[in-house]
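Notes from the 1:1 (GR / supervisor)

We went over the backlog. Supervisor wanted to see one worked example end to end before approving the batch request, so GR pasted a single chain during the call. The sequence is below; no edits were made to it. Supervisor asked that the structure be written out right there so they could see what the output format looks like.
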Amino acid sequence: MSKTIGIVGLGLIGGSLGLDLRSRGFQVYGVSRQARTCQIAVERGIADEAGLSLELLALADIIFICTPIAAIAPTLKQLIPYLSLNTIVTDVGSVKTPIVQECSQLWDYLSAVIRWRERQNKALKQHKKIYLSMLLMF
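Structure output shown during the call:
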């Protein structure tokens, strides 16, 4: 089972999670707001790679949001462009009701983004097939 883990927030909880997951053989990518934190995370073995951009997590199978509770929903919204259809996103917040209430409002937006991506991918694949069939005809 090859899983790539993304962690947003490399403080006490996110850092400890990264250390534990890496010790179990998972590949871990971390994101923080501060470059120095990212550097320390790599030096200490918390993450294989760490950076300031959420784009780093685009290939993650599972993403843990380890931010303060008030930042969880905004972080999820910022993550949406980088999520695949199979990405699992969870958080380590100590309360769930306010997080679920706020994040559930993102589902319509997320569904629209996913439908748009699916249409774009389908159109792109069809275009490539057409291009290749014309190129190989003669």
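Supervisor's comment: The mean pLDDT is 81.
Batch request approved.
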